């Protein structure tokens, strides 16, 4: 039986801002663009008004006229994340980061020789508070799914343990929309099939779930029974890298859109250069002034060889959305199907414009 901890920082970006600026403490704070962006993170004071991450800033302002917008400082967040990661690695090498503010830890065997995962979670939370001044919530269980569910159960600044005996019963009582790995679209589909709770999900046969949800049916069949065989993977490979920008004024011309695309391409390629990764699939994201969003993708036989090629492919995808019926408020570029830079000069020549 494994011992898994899921650590999730509480309102991470917003909490860092409140820590570093005392004037923000106790007030509704949103990290993100005030005029035309989206909320990247919301303080718990803001969440009381129904403000959530990924919400358009104009909607957030409507819900809370006193909302304070703060520009994100990713260097600061990364520095705090490094402090937290160092604490994790004092206990185990089996750390799987999911983002800057959350990670799984497998402490079945650990550097401290502590037999209780609950005690380790308590100690980690205390050390995070001492080192950063921030609070973290922790979930402890015998698999990743339940550890993640447990960390959400007593937020903020909470600790919850789901034992093997508790697991199946805990899952049965929850609405399926609260399950990690079940998004709004899947929740709606399940509800149409009469699946509202974990108990309803457990009542379905594996063939039924496979028929309606494909390969995900196996996963849903297992988690409805408190089963999750996934291992904590410290070598978890990043599947994509992307960047996007929301503009202060809508873009209507192809020339303006191409000019706005270049800094986004450069940011994506900078990551690739720094990390020695390359990818084959380029995806362009376009969000219009009415918040309608489309994507266009191109997958090459060989990896994108340099910034010029990434710019060319992205530009070709962008050309495909013109002429416009409405303005563009956001552009994004993602490079996926990532792998190591294998420096293959011959194949890369095939993808260059002649």
UniProtKB/TrEMBL annotation:
Entry keyword annotation includes DNA damage: yes
Cofactor comment: Binds 2 magnesium ions per subunit.
Site feature location: Substrate discrimination: 13
Domain UmuC residues, every copy: 4-183
Ranges in coiled-coil conformation: none
CDD domains in the cross-refs: PolY_Pol_IV_kappa
Record GO terms (molecular function): DNA-directed DNA polymerase activity
General function of this protein: Poorly processive, error-prone DNA polymerase involved in untargeted mutagenesis. Copies undamaged DNA at stalled replication forks, which arise in vivo from mismatched or misaligned primer ends. These misaligned primers can be extended by PolIV. Exhibits no 3'-5' exonuclease (proofreading) activity. May be involved in translesional synthesis, in conjunction with the beta clamp from PolIII.
Protein name in the entry: DNA polymerase IV
